[in-house]
Structure formats: C-alpha cells, structure tokens
Amino acid sequence: MLRPLAATKPVAALLALSVGLLAPSTIVGGERAGPDNPIEARTASALSDSVQDVDYAADVEFALDALEERCGHFFDAKDIDWKKVRKQFTKEVRDVATHQEHLVLLVRLLARLEDGHAQVRPLPAGEDVRWPDEPERVGPGMFWCQVGKKIYVKNAWGTAAALGIHSGWEVKKVGKQKVLDWLDERVAELSDRSSFSTDHQAFFYACHWGLALPVGTRLDLELKTDEGKTKRRTLVYEKGNPVPSGPAFAPPGLPSTGLANAGDLYYGLLEYEGVAGGLGYVHVRRCPSDLPEQMDAALATLSGAAGIVLDFRGNSGGGFDHEGLMGRFVPAGETLDFVKSYSSAGAHPFGGPVVVIVDATVRSAGETASGMFKEDGRAYMIGESNTAGMSSSKTTIELPSGLFSLYVSVASNMGRFNEGKGLEGIGAVPHEIVEFDPEDLFAERDTLILRALELLADGDLEGVPYRPH
After folding, report:
1. For the domain that residue 281 is a member of, what is the CATH number?
2. How is residue 79 annotated by DSSP?
3. Which end of the chain has the lower number of beta carbons within 10 A, N or C?
4. pLDDT band per the 50, 70, 90 thresholds, residue 348
5. Which DSSP string corresponds to 181-196?
C-alpha cells in the first residue's frame, strides 16, 4: 500500500484522490490534464474569493454546448456519454466559488473529451489564476510493461535498483491489491484530470509517468523474481525522472563508442551475425522542424547498412516536413508512389528495408512520422501497442467569462490512415504486436529491437509493398 510519511496540504475536495490506504489529505492523482500536463496556469495559492461578478455556471453551460457541437463527432468512436457528462458538471459547477475552482472544474471537464491535446488556456482576465498547490512528484526508478495478463518491471535504476528490484521481475501486488487492480484505479484517478485519447495511451501513461508520486510516499510491492521467488520491497520516493526515453535497453552490437547523436536522433551501425554491412538503428526521440536534416546526418553513417530500425518509442511529437523526411528513404532519382507520392530527397537517401518500432508513448507528430512509413507502404511496423492516438486539428473556444479558453481537437489528422479514420482515437496500428519477453528484460535486452533486427536479417517484410534496393 501507499503510506505518506507526512500529510500534505489538501487541494479542493474534488481533487482529493486516494490510492490504496492513502491518507485522505494526500493527493496521488495530481498530474494535471493531459499526458504532458497541458495546463497553462502556474502552481501557487488561490486568488481572492471576491469573484461574485463571474457566472461560472454560464461558462460551463456554454462549454458543454460548444464542445458537443465542435467535438461531438468523436463521441461515438470514443464511447463518450455526453448526457452523463452534462449532468455531472451542471451539478458540480454549483459548488464552484473561486476562479481557481473554476479552472479545476474545466480541466476535469476536458478530461471527459478523451483528447490528449486538450488544454485550458488563460485569457487576459485569467492570467493570474493559479493551479492549487501540490506536492513535488518524482519517479520510483522503474517503468512497467504488460506481458499477457501479467505486469513486469521493464527497467529499473536509482531508487528501485538500490532495493534490488530487477528488470524482468513480475509485479504481483501493490500493498494488498493485485497489481492490475491497482493500475485500473490509477488509470481512473489520472483520467479524472488528464485527458487521454485512447485507453492504451492511458494504460501506458500509468505504467510510466503515472508511477510518479509525492516525495516521501512509501510503495509496498510484492514481486516474483526470475527464479520464481517472492520478494517484498518497500520503496520510498526520493528522486527519479518519471519520463520514459523510449527503448527499454540499448540495441545489441553497438560500437564501443555507443550511439551517436544528431539533435533529437540517436543512431549507430550494429554488428549482426550473417549480415554484411551491419544493420542501422535510429531512435527518433522527437520530430522537430529540422528532422529531415538530422536524418541526413544519421544516414551519412548508416547508408551502407543492410537495413535500418527506426525506433519512435517515447517520441513526444513536434512538427516537420513530411515529404522531406520520407524522401530520405526513397532511392536517389526515384519516387515512392503507393498511397502518396514522395520524391527522393537528401544527400544520403536510403533504399534498403526499414522496420519501425512504436508503442503508446509515441504521440502527436511522432504518430504521423512513424505512421507514414507503414501507411504509405515504405516500412514494416511492430509495437507493444498502437501509438497513443492523439493526432488532430485543433480549435480554441473562448468562454463567456473571459477567464479561459478551451483548446480542443476537432478533426483527426492523417485522414488516409486506418482506412480513412485517421489517427485520433486510434493511433498508428502495427503490422505485428510484440510483447516484451521477461527473460529478455532480465538479461537487459529489448525484445522489440531484437525482433526488428531479426526481421531485417530475414528480409521478409510481409505486407510492405515497397521492395528494397
């Protein structure tokens, strides 16, 4: 169970969430709305309560109508019961007495949209409204993954590693709860204020960022080792980065210098038995505007590889030239023309086979970039799951009070993907689902990278119309 070392200052009652036997005054579900905390209001104490001139109920009524009008076409696909949402928030707004409480309620309302990009943004009159004080949150020094119906430690470092917790160990219980029950509760708590575009995005979030808890929290764990022995550990949260970088472990066969770096890319030429020229590996951490030029730097090293792995896991998005990136994977002087036409581009265009790796930590522009390779016929895609499914066109809705605006998705991006359904609420769908192998995890091997390399070495990428040069 979770045991706070000391009680922390409570936020508004509607934010008081509990996990296990947590003290009521401790906030556990404190991530702000959206997987990247997309609230543009600073954390501080509440403002003065002298706000009788603001009709909060009118704001909420306007928001409910406007969101249904602009976003309602997503409701059936995302199984959103807007009548239920309307009833809940029409009632809850009656208890709102301050601008701060209004901000919190609006954030919780947007969470019901299941829109990973949704944000409450301040207008001039609301620029000084603060988010409630909350305790500092840190990671436990580990991430989790699901294999079948079991949860495993994907990797461990820092606090968790110091307790002897090892990657590949099964997580059985958190306190007295079975770990899947604990995760279900955690997802529900996070989803009260965080907007997730898909269920798989919410689950992956809970297994990574969502493991972050207030400094000083105790986490009682029951684990099973690789040898089948039961181990119990109490982890005290001290420090740790809760943001996943992507792959569980570095790829095998790296040169002694490790992965090279070009901006947001990490790449290297891997030795692989029986493959002349080796195999290339590129971790695409983000998708900045100069991504095609960064890829040029990587391909200058990898141009002679027999195949390349593009690992998009952990990609947080951005914005880039679609044709410019894909053109780097079209042989010089040629055109890729299966679904959309791409001309060769860059100084070192690569014409060999490509395998793309994804999971639900791939978001926004990362989904566009990875998805193009699959949907437009250039590469084979594998992953633990679909990508997050948060890729859309957005609009801004200003509320009558003049305090806040709502930034929300109104149309799915990449409408040609998923048989015309686009990415929002679905994600890029792998050709092949690959789960981690606990034995690989214990040996600190990334199962998905191993599978990608195997596919490239075998040379048979079924379902990919492109034929490598």
Report:
1. 3.90.226.10
2. T
3. C
4. very high
5. HHHHHHHHHHHHHS--
What is the enclosing helix (H) or strand (E) of 240?
Answer: none
- Which comes out higher in pLDDT, residue 46 or 272? 272
State how far the Cα of 241 lies from the Cα of 351, in Å rounded to an integer.
38
What token pair was written down for 192? Answer: 């009260």
pLDDT tops 80 at residue 335: yes
263 CB-side CA count, 13 A? 15
- Residue-by-residue DSSP string for 316-355: --B---HHHHHHTTS-TT-EEESSSEEE--SSS---S-EE
Q: Which of 311, 312, 252, 249 is nearest to 278 (CA)?
A: 252
Structure tokens at 420: 């015309």
Q: How far apart are CA 386 and CA 425, in angstroms?
A: 10
> Does residue 293 have a pLDDT over 50?
yes
Q: Verify that 190 and 325 share a domain, yes or no.
A: no
- How many residues belong to the chain? 469
**Is 284 among the domain residues?**
yes
* Parent domain of 160: 2-8+135-236
Q: What is the pLDDT of residue 279?
A: 98
With 0-12 / 13-18 / 19 or more C-beta atoms within 10 angstroms meaning exposed / middle / buried, residue 274 is: exposed
Asked if the structure places residue 364 within a domain, the reply is yes
Strand partners, 337: 341
Q: How far apart are CA 342 and CA 329, in angstroms?
A: 9
Is residue 207 located within the same domain as residue 314? no
User: What's the one-letter identity of residue 400?
Assistant: P
pTM for this one?
A: 0.88
> Are 136 and 156 spatial neighbours (Cβ–Cβ below 8 Å)?
no
Nearest to 446 by CA among 256, 314, 273, 351: 314
Closest listed residue to residue 307, CA positions, set 345, 277, 338? 277
pLDDT at position 53, please? 82
